[in-house]
Amino acid sequence: MLILFCVSGIVLNHVDWLKNDKNNGQISTPIPSALAAKANAQLSTLPTLYPEIEAYLAKQYALTNVKSIEWEKEDALVMLDYPLPAGFAYAELDFISGTLNLDYQTGGFLSLIGDLHKGRHSGEAWSWVIDISAVLMILFAITGMIILFQNRKKRLAGIWITVLGIATPVVIYLCWVPQLKGVY
Hints:
There is one protein chain. The protein is α+β, with helices and mostly antiparallel strands. It folds into two domains: 86 residues, TATA-Binding Protein (2-Layer Sandwich); 54 residues. 52% of the residues lie in helices and 21% in strands. Strands 1-5-4-3-2 form a five-stranded antiparallel sheet. It is elongated. Keywords: Membrane, Transmembrane, Transmembrane helix. This is PepSY-associated TM helix. InterPro entries: PepSY_TM-like_2. Pfam families: PepSY_TM_like_2.
């Protein structure tokens, strides 16, 4: 996990590498007949079918965690927006024509690890992976410091290296990173 977060951190620092790392696609397929029949019987109350529509898209295309659902009553359209790590899926169910149009974008490996690094649209399970990894890395650092303080021969050099490791990014930040000053 440490290597994954280090590599993805480098990728995030060079977002220009991700310029051509996206793939767009579209699927057009008939709406399942059972769902279309229910919808045609209840065109004026299509929102009551949202759970069934979501269940169908989850089963057929593994789409979960819908961001938004819109309904155009006069055109009998239901539109669902799904954010994904490194992409998105946008489903449009046209109950008049009986067609499901699914537009999607997926990212390549670099885009994917960048979004996983940030936890962007990756779900609760991945959020736990990030948190547990961070806690373990903190524990590794603390236990490393404890081991350092127990080693008399290398303690002084280790303390100086630690101070240098803390001071260097602080100095770089204060001297070379653009920042707004004088506003509080």
